[in-house]
Design brief:
Elements (H helix, E strand, L loop, with lengths): L2 H14 L10 H19 L6 H19 L11 H30 L3 H7 L5 H4 L12
Helix pairs in contact: 2-3, 3-4, 4-5
This protein binds protoporphyrin IX containing FE.
């Protein structure tokens, strides 16, 4: 086998059988991805009156994702000492409730046709990520 054929075979093999096993998303990460994708879509259409119903439906779905997230536990939970775990999870639930209330607020603004206000409220959805609460697996913060 010549050198380039050998290199090609290695490339093909590693794409079919990756050298490093892919780490599965946690159930919470899956919900977070729904939130991230949905929020992005919302930001593209929130001030468009012709998308009013679509935006409201989207928010309803995002609220469901928040409720599912609230029923799950962050990966970091297992590393919290048992004695602090209750407090940690209570804080986590409180943050999820804040997010739920924010979606309700934005939904109310949309239902009232107040698109400018809804658009103004949207950046608040980035607060959790800015605070470092939404860590990826590699930098578990919460
Ligand atoms: C609209 C608001 C939010 C968006 C767009 C969002 C987005 C994300 C994203 C993209 C990730 C990384 C997922 C990955 O690496 O695969 C993440 C992780 C995470 N987020 Fe959020 N997030 C939001 C709100 C919240 C809230 C309110 C909390 C509650 C404290 C929270 C807690 C977490 C945690 C704990 C993780 C790490 C996943 C785990 O521990 O399993 N997020 N988030």
């Amino acid at each position: 086998m010549n050198k380039s054929l050998f290199t090609l075979s290695i490339c093909l093999l590693t794409s079919v059988f990756p050298l490093k096993a892919h780490e599965e998303d946690s159930s919470l990460e899956e919900q977070m991805k729904i939130l991230a994708k949905g929020t992005r879509q919302l930001s593209q259409q929130i001030d468009n009156p012709t998308s009013q119903q679509s935006s409201i439906d989207l928010i309803e779905n995002l609220k469901k994702a928040v409720k599912v997230s609230e029923s799950l536990e962050p990966r970091k939970t297992v590393s919290i000492p048992q004695s602090d775990r209750g407090k940690f999870l209570a804080q986590y639930h409180a943050e999820m409730e804040k997010l739920f209330d924010l979606f309700n607020k934005i939904e109310g603004e949309l239902k009232g046709g107040n698109y400018a206000m809804a658009k103004f409220s949207l950046p608040q959805l980035n607060l959790w990520r800015k605070r470092g609460i939404c860590s990826s697996r590699r930098t578990k913060v919460i």
